[in-house]
Amino acid sequence: MYSEWRSLHLVIQNDQGHTSVLHSYPENVGREVANSVVRPLGQALNMPSATGSESLLKTDKEVKWTMEVVCYGLTLPLDGDTVKYCVDVYTDWIMALVLPKESIPLPVIKEPNLYVQSILKHLQNLFVPRADPGSIQMRLCLQVLKAVQKLARESSIMARETWEILLLFLLQINDTLLAAPTVQGGIAENLAEKLIGVLFEVWLLACARCFPTPPYWKTAKEMVANWRHHPAVVEQWSKVICALTSRLLRFTYGPSFPPFKIPDEDAGLIPPEMDNECIAQTWFRFLHILSNPVDLSNPAIISSTPKFQEQFLNVSGITQELNQYPCLKHLPQIFFRAMRGISCLVDAFLGISRPRSDSAPPTPVNRLSMPQNAAVNTTPPHNRRHRAVTVNKATVKTGTVSTTHTSKVQQQASSTSPLSSPNQTSSEPRPLPAPRRPKVNSILNLFGSWLFDAAFVHCKLHNGINRDGSMTAIATQASVEFRRKGSQMSTDTIASNPMFDASEFPDNYESGRAEACGTLCRIFCSKKTGEEILPAYLSRFYMLLIQGLQIADFICHPVLASIILNSPPLFCCDLKGIDVVVPYFISALETILPDRELSKFKNYINPIELRRASINILLSLLPLPHHFGIVKSEVVLEGKFSNDESSSYDRPVTFLSLKLRLVNILIGALQTETDPNNTQMILGAMLNIVQDSALLEAISCQLETNGGENSLLKSHSRTNSGISTTSGGSTEPTTPDSERPAQALLRDYALNTDTAAGLLIRSIHLVTQRLNSQWRQDMSISLAALELLSGLAKVKVVVDSSDRKRAISSVCSYIVYQCSRPAPLHSRDLHSMIVAAFQCLCVWLTEHPDMLDEKDCLKEVLEIVELGISGSKSKNSEQEVKYKGDKEPNPASMRVKDAAEATLTCIMQLLGAFPSPSGPASPCSLVNETTLIKCSGLPTINKHSFRYFVLDNSVILAMLEQPLGNERNDSIPSVTTLVRGTSGRFAWAQQLCLLPRGAKANQKMFIPEPRPTPKNNVGLKYTVKHRPFPEEVDKIPFVKADLSIPDLHEIVNEELEERHEKLRNGMAQQIFYETSIDQKSEEEWRKKSFPDPVTECKPLPPAQEFQTARLFLSHFGFLSLEALKEPANSRLPPHLIALESTLPGFFDDLGYLDLLPCRPFDTVFIFYMKAGQKTSQEILKNVESSRNVQPHFLEFLLSLGWSVDVGKHPGWTGHISTSWSINSCSNEEEPEQDEVISSEDVGASIFNGQKKVLYYADALTEIAVVVPSPMEPLTDSLESSVSDQENDSNMDLMPGILKQPSLTLELFPNHADHLSSSQRLSPTSRSKKVPQGRTIPPMGPETKVYVVWVERYDDIENFPLSDLVSETSTGVETTANSSTSLRSASPEKEVPVIFIHPLNTGLFRIKVQGATGKFNMVIPLVDGMIVSRRALGFLVRQTVINICRRKRLESDSYNPPHVRRKQKIADIVNKYRNKQLEPEFYTSLFLEVGLNNCNP
Q1: Are 1396 and 1195 in contact (CB under 8 A)?
Q2: Cβ-count burial of 1199 within 10 angstroms (0-12 exposed, 13-18 middle, 19+ buried)?
């Protein structure tokens, strides 16, 4: 930089300005003259009475003569006061440039610059080391330095020549004291910090007021290079360059760039009047004033300066041993401090700098003797940690020499290695690099050569050539071989090089090298999306990683730890060729994660942080084997790190063969992990790998069954994954130090984790075993483990029922243990764990309903339900059985009881019955009173035609007795019942069945069998004359008596004859009449049908009118007197009561009850963020066309759920005003209307919640996926607003939009649908309207999650979350009538956001933010995870479900759906109960319902 300029080194050497005339005289002459002349001047200054008195010297000649004497006086020994008086006089006189005083001679006041230049040259004599230095010289030097400091700060009339003399003076005195090897306890060691501090401060002041010319910068650079063996030089340089960088960033990148915070005292070093150009020039020059900081790692270079070389030769010219200079033992620590300073600069440019935690542990050397509070205020707070090696600032202040401290300095010369990032604390997440940060190439152009050189310091590369080619003769003579084997120096090296103590050497430069490696990792991890990095930088970086990740002969624990700590996002950045280092990272993870103690690392770094970083890396490696399959990884250095030819470490391997190693690391990590956060990350990764394996196998099987010959996919099948001994590990352990627990794991699990089923079984076994041992006390791990089990239940892999039973049994055992804990331990958190366990149980039962076919499993589950509801099991032991009716209910808490009741409902109502024929959108019947009335078509039926009863205060029955007209036989007694219970609304249409089903089908009206027609022509007919008496009577002879009665004719006379004739005629007429009647009746009988309907016996006709409600209740035994009586000593109503439906508000409350959902409901809002976007409107417009988004985005959307029409959808739609709507049967007129939309490219905005949403539901939850798009302001004419694009291009859709049926429950057809003014003006109402007469029930906490697809990862920082909160209203937040303490809107920081960034490899990077509190980390997606395209939809959906479940667990206001419904039913009973006496109740059953109240 200054090659064309001449150095001032010779000018300084040849300058005789510090010599006096008295130097020509004998020594005693000069001493006597100086003592005599200086004493009155000094005494005049020091006498209080003399303050303000005039100086003794009046003329220019007097002053110059006196100055010759004072110049000589400054060289005298320190035993008298002469030197002190000289210093007092000169420090007083140089103030002439600041504020002239009477004590200063008049000539000096008139020509201050001229005299001060001479004075400064004379003052150099004071700083020449004395034979017997003491505190006096140090005090006087400090006095001069303070005066010079004050001069530079406050003088406004200093000429350029004076500034230049001042800078040369400071350079000269620094060089005089600091260039020579440090003497322990000497003046140089004690004054170094102040000397350098004043030099740098004055130099900065000169830059602001009189910018030094290049020769001065060149001279300073040359001289500073000679002082670098002093720790203070690097400390002060780091302080100054950090202060300059802070100012530089402010104007280079603007106020939006994260500020580089430094202490006020450091910031004060930079003069405020420095302009931006000056700052930039000064910053670059100061950055290089230290020369190459990597030289600090090479004692040969540091000791090759002239002053060192002078000391190497004694009087006789024989070279001494280097080890007589203890200052060289400080070099490792100084090297580390230099690297730490550069690291802080890099972090500042990346925008990730922040105050650093003081938690950096030391390296192993002499660790026990370290003072824990030895940190010194010489670095910015972002640099400060507990450092053992410090500059003794205390001695400078007190003026005493501390030999004990310097001995500690000597002992601990290499005892610090803070490996964590300068800006990383264990408690806070690593900050994201600033979006406006410079490119990686730019930073590496600036710092790369230093960092790469430092990262390879003393490394023996594969070709046997030492990387550091600048090692000079001394190191060559000592034949220092810096090859490490198990962190131990080879014996020949130690023997041949007495310069270093063997016990200290191995860790000497590792801390600085580790810092450089970590910094480079952070630089490369900050690569922006789409940014190009020079191949030269990438290749050197990969070489560094391969070198630093060695785990055999070349292992260096601090470097390995530093690389791991700073590389979590390394595989997420789309670095070209990064996959070549995958095998090396896997080997390193095999060393770290399965090792429970990490004893080799805990001296350098917090093991929890190291494990966390390792797990993060593992999360990003897990999808690679499935993704790349049989692609082989390139080999960088084949066989160069091992002499073992059979080693697989440096041979190409397929990615698929790495899967088993990664899985074994994952399992080993889970078995040894103790930190809750780390454990949860591992659990999330387990679900990721299991689901990905299952999906991949399903695809492979599908392709094989379809005859697919795709070799790449077929190679993914587990049968030929190429598992062999060579893929099991890297090299065989060569020393005990490098033995890896992963070797044992490999042997144990290689057989059963190679398939998805084996992996699933292994995961279930491992998690269930730990859930009931180590984890059951820890809430966060328990919740994550239960979430993992719930996720594993949904993985579609066939496993044996015994493994599924193991999962269910373990959850049951977990509940038993938690419920049985002592009462003092019962807390809300404990009950949250139990509730989560019941939810997990429900997931397993609904996903595997056949499990309850096994008797022992059913018994165990029902026992757990009983335990949750009543607080104890009926059967506690073999002998004791307590019946349920005899037990006192004593559940662990009401929340636990509610969860157990929900589980019982799930078992009884959902298992095997979901999804119902009506679809998964609603587990309830899509029927209510209004629907029944419309479907019946009978004009006499209205809403008052229903009878309402309540059973057991928990079930409302709405009975419609009139037949609906759709039965096959209307004459059969039928009743339609709407059952509203705690689990939903169900419609039952019931008929009284009196005959078998077959007979009933053929049965006609009740008609008896017909009689046969009589036949009169059957048999023989005889004509027989009937006699009154038999013929024998005529044969009997008469006797006298017979003749005693005369015949009629014997006694007839005329009179009698007349009468007789009359009688005869009458008889004849009568005979004729009777005969004619008989004939007539005979004729009529012949004409009549048979049988005679008048006389025939017929059965009674069947009843046509039924009071079926009464029959139903009676048949079910509800009409007993006991059921109607009020129970004694109880506030509960009778078992059966009637409701008065005519009371006002009754149907509103029923509608309110129907609005209470039967399942938890969640909402996902999807946003697409293109590169560089910042405003909400830009983001919302992206989804208006599929051309604006990446194809994978639309594929991802459709993997989250299926499309539903908002107007016809009976489930959750994302907004409360359109959800759970029950449509009439007549909505089928326009089935093709919505199909027109597909002809226009409206992109994903079709799912914006107006006409369509994406929807997913299972038996236990429902999710609406909404893609918000720009909305027009609401107008009076349009009920559905549409986006600009739809308004322009889809005008043909407008009639359909206008004709769209009302999206509200049709329970309230008469209510006015006017929006309030606030809703009309609000852009968030999204044209959703709620009828005024309907109250929205409180829904508990609002559970919504944002999923953001970001094209450029850096744009996450710019995501306008607060602006988009207003676009994502669900209506839940506006439930003003809620009894809970809900906020009107969720603060933006509480809205969980899942960012998805597509990588160039086809994988996806995940970032999760926003979830706070003790329920924060939700699995399976965790921050930094890499996910495959196959598993993305499932994992996002599962994460959303778990986030929302946790939010409900955390909320004090949340009640499960069945509890809210139960409370509402009880409220309806209290408000509308018909309090009739038993006779009145019975009477009402016989009366017609609704006739008096008909309002058609």
Answers
A1: no
A2: middle
Q: State the pairing for strand pair 1344-1350/1393-1398.
A: parallel
d(CA 739, CA 797): 36
Q: Which residue has the tokens 């509610």?
A: 898
pLDDT in tens, 348-389: 998 887 554 333 333 333 332 333 333 333 333 343 333 333
- Take residue 1000 and report the two structure tokens written for it: 């009933």
Q: Is the dihedral of CA 366, 372, 373, 376 positive or negative?
A: positive
In this structure, are residues 948 and 1428 in contact, taking their beta carbons and an 8 Å threshold? no
Q: How far is C-alpha 997 from the geometric centre of its chain's CA atoms?
A: 59
End-to-end CA distance of the chain: 99
Alpha-carbon distance of 1071 to 1094, in angstroms, equals 29
Q: What is the DSSP letter of 881?
A: B
In 214-241, which positions are buried (b, 16+ CB within 10 angstroms) versus exposed (e)? ebbbbbbbbbbbbbbbbbbbbbbbbbbb
**What HEC string does 1421-1490 produce?**
CCCCCEECHHHHHHHHHHHHHHHHHHHHHHCCCCCCHHHHHHHHHHHHHHHHEECCCHHHHHHHHHCCCC
In terms of DSSP bridges, do strands 1262-1266 and 1161-1169 run parallel, antiparallel, or are they unpaired? parallel
**Gap between the Cα atoms of 297 and 507, Å rounded:** 12
CB of 1264 closer than 8 Å to CB of 1161: yes
pLDDT at 1236 over 70: no
What DSSP state is assigned to residue 430? Answer: P
Average pLDDT, integer, range 1429-1457: 88
CA-based radius of gyration for the chain: 50
What is the per-residue DSSP string for 1275-1314?
-SS-SS---HHHHHH-GGGHHHHHTPPP-S-TT-TTS--P
Q: What does pLDDT average to over the chain? A: 74
CB 1331 within 8 A of CB 1312: yes
What is the distance between the alpha carbons of residues 593 and 999, in angstroms, rounded to a whole number? 74
CB-based contact 735:640 (threshold 8 Å)? no
* 389, 231 contact by CB (below 8 A): yes
pTM of the model: 0.78
Q: Name the 3-class secondary structure at 958.
A: strand
The 10 Å Cβ neighbour count of residue 20 is: 21
